[in-house]
Amino acid sequence: GSLLSKRMVQENIEKGNREIRGLYPVLIKEFLSHEFKDAELVNREDDMDHENLRASKKSYMPLKMIEKYKVTGGKSND
Questions:
Q1: What backbone phi and psi angles, to 5 degrees, belong to 33?
Q2: pTM of the predicted structure, to 2 decimals
Q3: CB atoms within 10 A of CB 56
């Protein structure tokens, strides 16, 4: 992770064994409490359209979630 501002930290990478139930909430809690204890806000970044990541982000009751769009090159009618 890295600091985005005095108040906000950005979580860049989160890796763990998916077979260990409850591991990811512990990882984020420990990461923040040891590395960024003064941070008020956390940007957990893009969920890459994975429903489990989106549900995890929503479980923390975010102040804001930004909807992203993918733009692809299309053929012109000209």
A1: -70, -25
A2: 0.64
A3: 16
